[in-house]
Every structure is written in C-alpha cells, then in structure tokens.
C-alpha cells in the first residue's frame, strides 16, 4: 500500500499543480476532499470515470433516487461533471473525485456521511474501497489482460481490495474470471452485465433547424475522436466527397478543448467548416464541428452512419451501444479492447465494419450510401447488442447488498 500511495502522490501532484496555476479553486478543493456537505445525512458514494460510464449507469442512479437514497456522485473529468450536474437529480450532489490518498478520501467519507460505495467498470480505487465503512459494489466490472498484468505488481493490496467487495457484476466472462483469480469471494460474484447495454436515448431530439440541415442518409458522424484520428477521418471524407458530393460530416472530438486545433485541421484540408460552439449556420458546410459537451445524442440521431473513434489509436475504442440505440450503422477501427465482447457480437452478426484507415472508411461510406442499407445495419447492431441479463435482478442484488 505504501508504494501505491507514493505513486498516487507523484501522479496527483502534477494535476493539482496545474489546477492551482489555473486558479481552478473549486476543482482543487474537490480533489483534496475539502468540499463540505450542505447537510448531514447518510449517502451512497457512486463513482464514474467519465461521460460514457456515467450515462450507462443512469438507470441504476434513477432507481436508487426513486428508492429515496441520497447520492454523492464523483467523476474524473470536467465534461462528466457538467453532464451529471445537468441532470439535476433529487437528493444528489456531484463533485470531481478526490485524489485516492488517505487524507482526501477520508475527508469525503467523513464530511459527506458515506455509508456505501458503488464504482463502475474499471475505476477501482483501493484507498476509497478500503476506507468505505459499509458495502462496496462494482457494476459492469472490467479487467483487461493488460490491466491484470499491472495488478500483479500490487497483489497483496489487490487481494485486500477484492476481499472488501460485497458485490461485483463483471462486464464480460474474461473480466469475471480475472477478478476471481485475484481473490474476489464467490459470494460477491454477480451476473455478467454490461451497463452500457442499458443506454436509452434521451427524450430531447435535434432541433428542427438541425434536422433540416442534415439529411440522415447523407450524414456521417465521427464520434469521440482523439488526436491522430481527425486527419484520417478528414481524409476519408475528402475521398468520399469525390463520389458523394452531398455527404456531410459531423466531427465530435472526445475533448472539446482540442476544438481549435481540429478546426484548423479542417480548414487545412480545404473543407468548409461550421462550429457548434460558436453558433455557426451548419447549412451547406462539408464539416460540422460538434465541439460542445453533452450533445452526442443529437449527433447520433442525425447520422445514418457513425464511426466510433478511439479505435484508430491505442485507446481501446468507445462504446458501440449508443450509436446502436439510435440505429446508426457502425464503423470502427482495429482497437476495440475496451468493448471486445460487444464488438465480437457485432462482427458475428455482420452488424459493424472494421475500418483501419481512410481508404476503408471511405469504401464503407460508399457501400452504405442508401438509407435502406444504413437502417438494416443499424437495426442489426441494435439486436446484436440486446442485453440478455435481467436489470430487475441486478437491482435486486444491488439493493440486497446495500441493505446488508
């Protein structure tokens, strides 16, 4: 545990210094566990790394609040913070997560009256798990082969963490096996359940102006691009425009802070540009830069085809569940480690296409140029990713563990 705390101190110091230099006092106080609770009451501390994990847990969060439970939701990113605050949920407070060291963690537990902890997917933080006074649950737990190798260096600490868990529903069978190998008690092993399969589209739709500007069959989305992927996407768009001159691209960077650099790249490629953040008119432009927070569902709704990014680099790929929920035909790159089981199901159902470069993306866009082809592939993806596990049973297990 001493080595872990030393490493955490070194890693956290850089971020805390950056926040301090930027004058971001609110974030700094949250990361140090210095934000006081507005009132004294017992709370469940629910943690999600970022937007995708948080959105996938919304059905669970809604059910917990319906049960009358008070929540403290923590996240790792500013975008997820904005998303959770935007929900304005009852009996719920939202903060950036504290650094996983004894001082910040124990201050949060003490100040906010934490009685239980729920964490999502792969974001298991040893200090807060071990310090939580009540039950600890992991939902959609994911442990890749690469992460498991890293855990080997901290085997005694990991064994303590596994012993503390009261319930873990793994995202896939391989993760379930790895958690068990690290000592997860048999009694804590829940059903295989991928929370992202619970995703349902928000009720708000794109505005009439947006729907008028983007014909779905002639619009494709590059969702959550990272550095190194935008140039490939833009090259694919340029190639396809030669044969489909009316094709529109909605380019949504994973991190909007990259928007200026991406905008410059679009102009360098000789493409006309409109930006969401500045209120530009999207009509007639070849690329619409979706550089805002919390609006990805609008772009899925407008796009007949979605390229799921994070898959052309070594990021492991992003969720296919969200575009599938909108019936958008799915393209992706070769790196899908974060959702291997889901992409395998899509591959077996011929419900997605792997595109490793600009040429293959362009070829897929040419093959999926009709609304009929896009709808058929999008519906196939929706069916392939249908959740087989029972949500009601999952909530029963969660409630039972929390009440133990």
UniProtKB/TrEMBL annotation:
Sequence ranges assigned to domain 3-deoxy-D-manno-octulosonic-acid transferase N-terminal in this UniProt record: 28-186
Site, Transition state stabilizer: residue positions: 121, 196
GO cellular component, one term: plasma membrane
Cited InterPro entries: Glycos_transf_N, Glycos_transf_N_sf, Kdotransferase
GO annotation terms (biological process): lipid A biosynthetic process; lipopolysaccharide core region biosynthetic process
Catalytic activity field: lipid IVA (E. coli) + CMP-3-deoxy-beta-D-manno-octulosonate = alpha-Kdo-(2->6)-lipid IVA (E. coli) + CMP + H(+)
Domain of life from the UniProt record: Bacteria
Cellular compartment(s): Cell membrane
Enzyme kind, highest EC tier: transferase
GO MF annotations in UniProt: Kdo transferase activity
Keyword annotations of the record: Cell membrane, Lipopolysaccharide biosynthesis, Membrane, Transferase
Signal peptide: none
Active site: 53
The protein's Enzyme Commission number: 2.4.99.12
UniProt entry tagged with the keyword Chaperone: no
Pathway(s) this gene product operates in, as recorded in its UniProt entry: Bacterial outer membrane biogenesis; LPS core biosynthesis
Role this protein plays: Involved in lipopolysaccharide (LPS) biosynthesis. Catalyzes the transfer of 3-deoxy-D-manno-octulosonate (Kdo) residue(s) from CMP-Kdo to lipid IV(A), the tetraacyldisaccharide-1,4'-bisphosphate precursor of lipid A.
UniProt record similarity statement: Belongs to the glycosyltransferase group 1 family.
UniProt name for this protein: 3-deoxy-D-manno-octulosonic acid transferase
High-level lineage: Bacteria, Pseudomonadati, Pseudomonadota, Alphaproteobacteria, Rhodobacterales
